[in-house]
Amino acid sequence: MKRFSGLELRKLSINTFAQFLVRLIGSFGTLLATLLIAYFLGYDSVGSFTKVTAFIASFYLLVDFGMNSVFLKIHFKDIDRQMGNLILLRISISLLLLPLVFLITSILPQNELLGTGFSDIERAAIIVYSLTLISFGIYNSLQAYYQHKLAYRLTIIPSIFSFLTMIGIIFYAVQHSNFFLLFTAYIFSGTVYSIFGYLFIKHTFRLSLTSRSFFKFSKNLLHSSWPLGIVLFFNFMYARTDIFILSLYQQNTDVGIYGISYRFFDVAIALPTYLANSTYPLLL
Fold first, then answer.
1. What are the C-alpha distances in Å from 138 to residues 40, 158, 173, 193, 207?
2. Is 258 exposed, middle or buried (0-12, 13-18, 19+ CB in 10 A)?
């Protein structure tokens, strides 16, 4: 316990609070977006929106793959030289996953008579929303640097800009009943966060992204992180299989009502994770 006293405890508190504040901003943005869709477009559209986002979220786990924790452990002392490799690896994985998303989307089941499964519009929306895999890869890589430096305070302003971008586009989309524009809001908001997140890091820590020995780096990191990645993937499927089951057996309205309820639950489960994120670099 002596290790976590004084300055360390202050860092833990500040970084845990910063992460939770950012989570509140993000969760409030998602909840507000869901409520706007429900108010202007109805629960049926909320159901479609929930199915599309839940489907792509399963691929987020493959982009994540538990690499941040392993990356920090292996490259704790040379993180500035390896950040470029991590971002490039995540972008590469995202691009490789896009054809897989297209293939699986083309064979998703649909029952037009019962109104269950994935409609043609929802499949097209999945293709559009899948582009967020790229911005998510960059976002997730930057989180490793914030964690290493215990500088989560730098994520607050980019999160606010990202939130305003997303809500602005979604508000325009629902007023004009443009279903596909809803998903471009997340593409643009993710891009805004990535740009401002990197600029804040570069300004504060003078980080310069370069790639060195990329293939060796990728091989070692993927080999070391695959057990954690598989565990995270199954944990996600355990937590979110309900959406896929509802999508196959219930109509969009039921999925939409369930999706709104889950938004409230989503905020409450995050605090222990953020405390662990702040503690991990000190343990290393």
1. 32, 13, 26, 9, 15
2. middle
Q: Is 218 helix (H, G, I), strand (E, B) or coil?
A: helix
Alpha helices in the chain (DSSP H): 7-41, 43-64, 67-74, 79-106, 120-129, 132-149, 156-175, 179-205, 214-249, 252-268, 271-283
Q: How many CB atoms lie within 10 A of CB 159?
A: 23
Token pair 């020995």 is found at: 213
The pTM assigned to this predicted structure is: 0.84
Specify the amino acid at residue 61.
L
Nearest to 204 by CA among 277, 161, 146: 146
CA nearest to 139, candidates 79, 187, 205: 187
CA distance 219 to 84: 15
Q: Tell me phi and psi for residue 111, to 5 degrees.
A: -120, 100
Token pair for 10: 């202050």
Q: Give the 3-state secondary structure of residue 234.
A: helix
Residues β-bridged to residue 116:
111
pLDDT tens-digit map of 171-229: 999 999 898 899 999 999 999 999 999 999 999 998 888 888 899 999 999 998 888 87
- pLDDT tops 70 at residue 239: no
Q: What is the pLDDT of residue 119?
A: 87
Residue 141 DSSP one-character state: H
Q: Are 95 and 223 in contact (CB under 8 A)?
A: no
Torsion angle (degrees, nearest 10) of CA 84, 89, 95, 101: -140
